Ribonucleoside-diphosphate reductase (Streptococcus merionis), 719 residues
Amino acid sequence: MSLKDLGDVSYFRLNNEINRPVNGQIPLHKDKEALDAFFRENVIPNTKVFASINDKINYLVSENYLEKAFIELYRPEFLAELADFIKAQNFKFKSFMAAYKFYNQYALKTNDGRYYLESLEDRVMFNALYFANGNEELATNLANEMVHQRYQPATPSFLNAGRARRGELVSCFLIQVTDDMNSIGRSINSALQLSRIGGGVGISLNNLREAGAPIKGYEGAASGVVPVMKLFEDSFSYSNQLGQRQGAGVVYLNVFHPDIIAFLSTKKENADEKVRVKTLSLGVTIPDKFYELARKNEDMYLFSPYSVELEYGVPFNYINITEKYDELVANPRIRKTKIRARDLETEISKLQQESGYPYVINIDTANNSNPIEGMITMSNLCSEILQVQEPSVINDKQEFVKMGTDISCNLGSTNVVNMMTSPDFGLSIRTMTRALTFVTDSSHIHAVPTVNHGNELAHTIGLGAMGLHSYLAQNLMEYGSPESIEFTHIYFMLMNYWTLVESNNIARERGVTFHNFENSDYANGSYFDKYTSGHYVPKSDKIKELFKGIFIPSAKDWEALKVKVMADGLYHQNRLAVAPNGSISYINDVSASIHPITQRIEERQEKKIGKIYYPAAGLSTETIPYYTSAYDMDMRKVIDVYAAATEHVDQGLSLTLFIRSDIPEGIYEWKKERKQTTRDLSILRNYAFNKGIKSIYYVRTFTDDGDEVGANQCESCVI
């Protein structure tokens, strides 16, 4: 037997039986039976066995499965000790989906795909050894965090760490285009290179002159942003890792750009094939001024990036439109066109209903809370990365006259459920910060010099979270309740505190800070003002009990940290970001990211396999009432939870809105009819803006098809 010839297996059938209530009960025990059958029928007979961990490592190195260099940093005795330590933690998968996902997508297999070469414990060990870079104590701490699933590296890091034939460790990239052909050409090459190595790519087109703008004095010569979008879409389609995955990219445009309507129209289902973009994602950057004009139902002016750059001497991206709006309107040298603000707001809502796009970046909100000198101008493919960038200047020889800074995303997540049982919350976060620091230090994207340059200067990381809804439900808290919001505040405050502590420690050890630290709000101490007031401590009895035994920094602790940071600096320009983390959350047996679950028994369509069902973590008769589907929830509750986390996160959070096409009665007080309307989305976007939300990733609309009645439809079901 091998993975190529499994024969008749029972685990898919057993797993599918979860969705068939028996006498009003959800048969969750079937998932445990499926998990046991999966190991019995699939994993155990098809895993290559070795006499010892050192024998396994020697084989993997000699056969070019593992890199030799990082293994040689450690004593053979330590390798055996670490393997024994990990084994002694007695890790067990809790669901069939978790085990299936790991062995199907993450476990190293033989070249012919017939046998497994590693278990989750092995993958944890190789991650720990790789990220610790020879430090035995750190390797042990990292292994401890990962085997107990308190820390989960992002998919590219977890999958590739230590492998001899691997992709990059980083998750995604951000690049911007300036208004000249050299930059456009260089950016297309950058997109090809970045898509080739595996990351999603965000691209800002804000600086490009609009359709009809002059070129060297000739009126009506420019073609605008849409043809450039098509070039990028073709690039991503071509550069697809030898057909293994579709290249992925998102393009961003400011709502005050004259091509904004044409930009949005490219995603409409009835768009002409010449302009329609099928695989490229769309995002809009929205200054505060747009919300004001829409609220007042006024006209809005769209400004030519070409004439703005001529007038101000900087690319359009770097103009604060909210601040300069009236000045731009009054300036006769600025080319401008006029539309109704609410008409554009409606167009955005219509497209979100139809396609889920565009992503929304509240760009002034992001910049107003940004402690780093410079401007945030865009985001990434999942809208959680918000970092300052600088434009490049490229000559006709395709040489950099001025090297700008672009962005690579070095991500990982805490598991909220397991972090709350950590014997040392602070040590856990500090250990994770060290792991991510290795990723940023060892990432060298030489094919795209601006990304490499930005990473070398900023040393940015993005530690996030998953499993918030799982934790809330298992502790009998309603998602969006005051207690859940208070919990979120404290949890993310602690993440912020301990990443600051460790970033400061690393800066002191190395005598290195991120570029331009001296001009940041960290250096002048103003960043810490809100924390030194002493407001960020648990207040309700419930939250005090949940954080019992976990160190909560006082105003004095924050003051002491402020002094240390002002004296020795921070190594990382950015530290926190909450990604959507989809498939990796299944391995952790928790809900994805910090948004609510969509189904109590989630249905996943797996290629070549069919449907797999995943019961919400900790689902029981007691927790069922707290596992409300996001589609049945007031999205303002989700926004409130994200707003609580946002206050402590220096970058962004990937916030998805979930709405039914037929909205259940009573969720929104303004609804007089059941059908979802553009007004509903406009109200929610404005609510998010007023709550200080920096970005909205995606709008997902659920349409009932009525084809299947399963555990989710059985309202009286118990476990």
